[in-house]
Amino acid sequence: MPVLKEMRRFVRRMSLWAPSLLACMLCSTPSTAAIADGYAKISSDLTIHYQETGAGDIAVVFVPGWTMTTEVYQHQLSHFDQSTKFRAITFDPRAQGLTSITMDGHYYAQRADDLRQLLAKLGCQRVVLVGWSAGGGDVLEYVRLFGAEKLVGLVLIDTTPKSHGFDDKKEWIWFGVKDNGDQDGQFKFFSYDLMLDRHAANVVFAKWMLENPTENNIRFVESMSNHTPTSIAALLNTSYWFLDDSDVLASLNGKIPLLYVTRKEWGPLASTWAEANSPAAKVISFGKHMMFWERPKQFNAVIDTYLAGIN
User: Fold this and answer.
1) What is the rounded average pLDDT of the residues 215-232?
2) Per-residue confidence at 167, pLDDT binned at 50, 70, 90?
3) Which of 44, 158, 171, 256 could form a disulfide with 165 if both were Cys (CB 3.0 to 4.6 A apart)?
4) Who contacts 205 (Cβ-Cβ below 8 Å, separation ≥6)?
5) In angstroms, rounded to a whole number, what is the distance separating the alpha carbons of residues 306 and 259?
6) Torsion over CA of 159, 162, 164 and 170, rounded to 10 degrees?
7) pLDDT tops 90 at residue 311
8) Model pLDDT for residues 126-162, shown as the tens digit of each residue
9) Which residue has the higher pLDDT, 191 or 289?
């Protein structure tokens, strides 16, 4: 591993150590999981940092959300440490965490292609894709562009099949554009407001995601997010606004097992959408946006039950 990357990794690990340790104490018993770090060279300007554990012919690939890193899935990788059936993988997407910060490519079709190339580099032939938040955009765009040939399952964690619609109180969407506006201000917040004051935006973002927004938990979220330059973070939000993979997700109904895990308040909207578009999907709702991190035992039990149905 190049010296510069090793130094960068060390600094990041030390910056995350204290809040990560506290989070483990709060959320679950500290683990001694054998989690391996690796780097996959995708192109001349992109090297992707990934982590993996467990063993098996089915790869469960956890895709982080907007500006987040592999650290957010620490409890899931620890959970799969002793697995002989499932190989758990997570990675830092382009311009996130320890992955290269590139000049271009900050849109979801490109991120889907990054994912395709990473799966090929890691030799993943049978895959369960797990996309959290904007990571759901990476996952669904992957299916739209490259098909579901390798997929044996798909899990969405608190994300939607399309980004915007008319009314976010009645539709399972991120952005409401009632009267051609920004109904709840999310689009402005994650683009312009973010560039005006990144720290303030990070704190608001973290408090929104967390059930337990302690100072240490907020710092944990911010330390991950700040690895992505502010202009790129804003651009990722802007490009996400154009996604609509509703038909893509609906087309998977009955073909592979689908699981939608949402925060509690989104449960009714997600269930209504699923009943109309993918009735074979399972919808489970609890906690808030980072429920898998704050309630790892509950979330991991849900994943175990889901994976038990995959051959």
Assistant:
1) 97
2) confident
3) 171
4) 221, 225
5) 8
6) -70
7) no
8) 999 999 999 999 999 999 999 999 999 999 999 999 9
9) 289
Q: What are the contacts of 189-195 at 24+ separation with CB within 8 A? A: 190/66, 190/233, 190/234, 190/237, 191/234, 191/237, 191/238, 192/234, 194/230, 194/233, 194/234, 194/237, 195/230, 195/231, 195/234
Is residue 86 packed enough to be buried (19+ CB in 10 Å), middle (13-18) or exposed (0-12)?
buried
Asked if residues 89 and 51 have their Cβ atoms less than 8 Å apart, the reply is: yes
Q: Which of 95, 125, 98 is nearest to 111 (CA)?
A: 95
Span 276-297, pLDDT tens digits: 999 999 999 999 999 999 999 9
What angle separates helix 215-225 from helix 198-209, to the nearest 10 degrees? 120
Residue 295 maps to which CATH number? 3.40.50.1820
pLDDT of residue 310: 94
- Indicate the number of domains in the chain: 1
Dist CA 287 CA 265 (whole Å):
8
Amino acid at 50: Y
Asked whether the beta carbons of 246 and 142 are under 8 A apart, the reply is: no
pTM, 2 dp: 0.88
- The domain in which residue 299 lies consists of 3-308
